[in-house]
Automatic annotation (TrEMBL):
Residues 19-42 are annotated as: Disordered. This is Lipoprotein. Residues 23-36 have a biased composition (Low complexity).
Length: 184
């Protein structure tokens, strides 16, 4: 899953936040790789491990994207848009990040932890996954530090998800084309 916003997206409106996953691949800067154009926010670049057109790269890219959602909560949604195409939930999460930033909201909690992640089913430049995550409690506060009604959530111990990604030859990166979650 500032935060993954999975709970709200899954069960009613993309309104909660998640913290970054502890198992994210190392954030080696793509700026160090002369062949790869940097992608992602400057303070949270797409790691080189997520920029290979194979199963390991697809898994690293999905982990990164889920953590990017968390990283961008109440910030600029553009990095989420740049790494997705035709993904309704991705656009909703990006729009929510923009709206929360414009409202001056702060998001606490919402740490998303991937509890299982399938090997991707890869067909040419397309990868599909199933996975499970848990999410810690979330609280959204306004500029005065007051909780925003109907924007937080209790801990959600089990969510199941599905994702599809497509390899983008120009960006040399996996781009999310589908993302969904539901309570287990």
């Amino acid at each position: 899953m500032a935060g993954l916003a999975v709970a709200a997206a899954l069960v009613g409106g993309c309104s909660s936040k998640h913290e970054a996953n502890d198992t994210l691949p190392s954030a080696s800067s793509t700026a160090a790789s002369p062949t790869l154009e940097p992608l992602g926010p400057a303070d949270f670049p797409v790691p080189d491990e997520a920029r290979t057109q194979d199963a390991a790269g697809a898994k690293a890219a999905l982990r990164y994207y889920l953590d990017l959602v968390t990283h961008q909560q109440a910030k600029d949604g553009e990095p989420l848009r740049a790494l997705s195409r035709n993904c309704n939930l991705c656009l909703s999460l990006a729009d929510r990040a923009d709206k929360d930033a414009a409202s001056g909201y702060e998001v606490e909690g919402g740490k998303a932890t991937i509890t299982s992640l399938s090997e991707p089913a890869i067909s040419g430049p397309h990868a599909e996954f199933s996975f499970s995550i848990s999410q810690s409690a979330v609280e959204v506060r306004d500029r005065q530090g007051v909780p925003v009604p109907d924007r937080g959530s209790a801990e959600i111990p089990a969510l199941t998800g599905a994702a599809a990604m497509d390899w983008n030859e120009t960006k040399q990166a996996w781009i999310v084309s589908f993302l969904s979650f539901e309570r287990s």
